[in-house]
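For the sake of transparency, this paper describes our internal protein records without simplification. The tokens are whole numbers drawn from a learned vocabulary of local backbone shapes. One such record is reproduced below, unchanged from the form in which we store it.

. . .
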Amino acid sequence: MLDKKLLTVACAAVFATLSAGAQAQYSGNVVKIGVLTDLSGTYSDLAGSGAVLATEMAIADFIAKEKPAFKIEMVSSDHQNKADIAANKAREWFEREGVDTATELVTTSTALAVMKIAKEKDRIALINGAASTPITNEQCNDVSVHYTYDTYALSNGTAKAVTQQGGKTWFFLTADYAFGHALEKDATAVITANGGKVLGSVAHPFPGSDFSSFLLQAQASGAQVIGLANAGADTTNAIKQAAEFGITPKQSLAGLLMFITDVHSLGLKPTQGMYLTTGFYWDRNDETRAWAKRFFDKQKRMPTMVQAGQYSSIYHYLEAVKAAGTDDTMKVMAAMKKAPINDFFAKNGVIRADGRMVHDMYLVQVKKPADSKYPWDYYTIRQTIPADQAFQPLSESRCPLVKK
């Protein structure tokens, strides 16, 4: 198991002027980024080594373009989807190793644990893989950014589309931890608002492997749609077993959080026609294709939205450090919130007072095998969901930082 990986990238550039050099303040003349992710478990495909690679790419691209007057170092570690391991590693990084930001943080429990340590130690948490809306609501803080997506945006896309197209009765298979319950809750609100009804739900252990008893409960409910309020290997295993038991296509499956790596693993035949919501699709335009092909050359897989969001968040963070002339937490956070995000991942993205980065999301449908023309040609984009509609409005926020 990879416990820690060290990447040190030193920049030999000097300050343009003596006055600029006098103003800059970087602790140890180093900006240090810690990638805490799932390198070996359920979420390793959608985050994992691909998130580490995305971070390396962002650092290298930033140095090549911006020529900063400070060194950049990266460390990475496997949190094993356990909050205590994540919290202990973050504390060690912040207290002993001079890490300025802990990032990626797939799995809500690990994100929430690290957010608390980051606040305590006056460091920054950049969250890409975790999804639960409490991150920017009840448990928000002023040193954390929720960058890529959340359960509100997922539900606002997939659950809304499926319900409006006739999937009126639902039964949920829900991962039994904060993320799964938040996704079920947010999806239920969208379903009922659009004239649908939830007939029931069952919570399954996280991570899970045998979904037979849970799927049989969903089958017995008679619901038109079985909502999968889980992710990663849990989702792919549930889809495989639903087909084995003959549950599909009699009942439809709605993968409320699916990634392109899931579709690739399962194949187009069992996933064709499924709707899902994503913050990134590699084949959307020339800009996304150019970055994704660079990523593919090294990873041999197309990037997920978590991995693309990881690159974007790291590059934006480094831009803010340079603009602020310091790695001081609050000054960097102010710079991050002041500057819009404009790159292949987001256009006119903005980090709000609650820490939510708002950007367009995309409702996509998985192609039929006959319609896929080349490798990883998996999605048809059905709808662009504008940023101000995709995410929870500030008027509904429960974050204490938001003034109403």
User: Anything to note?
Assistant: Residues 364 and 381 are 4 Å apart (CA to CA).
